[in-house]
């Protein structure tokens, strides 16, 4: 491994884990990246969160509160493409947005944060998206393979410090992918959690330093599944086996009757989000 290259590319974590700043090992984050190198600030031309931009985003977010997801996506494409991108974990909401983008702006670059721990069923959806829509979802991979990562850390990090594992294998990739973009689409719904309930339709994402667009913020799970069914949109077969939310294999379990739809994620830890949306 080229340590200096790794350090150049790594970013300072956003306080996701206390252990991230203690006892720094060769794989932990040691360099500090400034905002200027992040997200839309690194774009050409850069997009800066000026008062004027923030006012525009607030105004548009309020206006789009009553718009359909397709109208929100159309606005975002018109305003930000070709510097508009989407990250997907191939969940039902993400598949819904991919379906909509295939009709609105099929050239929108879409990527998946391929931690190396994803289910085979999840990765097969990438092929199905290509077959159905002709869209090639790019896999963004961490610098170290799972084997290398676990070897240098003395075992699986997800078992002891899932925040650091998520940072190393997901968030750092999104920081990398966000650099040079102006905006990204997220598939969150407000009714998924207390954190997500506060999400605007459009807003400035301080963590990744770019505009975040959430076209499904006002949709319900029922609306998502209704579109999936009526349009025959491909979806992860694990959803039919008790997994309403599918993340990485080691950190996802089936939920029990009556449990919250995200209860199967990081079960046994206080963690409820990977850090992309909070
Ligand atoms: S979900 Fe689990 S395995 Fe995946 S990156 Fe986070 S901690 Fe690691």
Write a structural description.
The protein has 278 residues and is α/β, with parallel strands linked by helices. The chain has one domain: 3-Layer(aba) Sandwich (Rossmann fold), CATH 3.40.50. The chain has helices at residues 3-9, 51-63, 69-80, 92-104, 120-133, 146-152, 162-178, 194-197, 221-231; strands at residues 84-87, 110-113, 138-140, 183-185, 202-205, 210-213. Strands 3-2-1-4-6-5 form a 6-stranded mixed beta sheet, with helices on both faces. Helix 5 links the parallel strand 2 and strand 3 (138-140). Helix 3 crosses helix 4 (92-104) and helix 4 crosses helix 9. Mean pLDDT is 87; it is low at 1-32. Bound molecules: iron/sulfur cluster.
Briefly summarize what is shown.
The protein is an alpha/beta fold.
CATH superfamily membership: HUPs
Distance between the termini: 31 Å
Overall average pLDDT: 87
Could you tell me the CATH topology label. Answer: Rossmann fold
Structural class call reads alpha/beta
For the record, the count of structural domains works out to 1
Write the CATH architecture name. 3-Layer(aba) Sandwich
CATH class: Alpha Beta
The description of the largest β-sheet is: 6 strands, mixed
Helix proportion: 25-40%
Within the largest sheet, what's the order of strands? 3-2-1-4-6-5
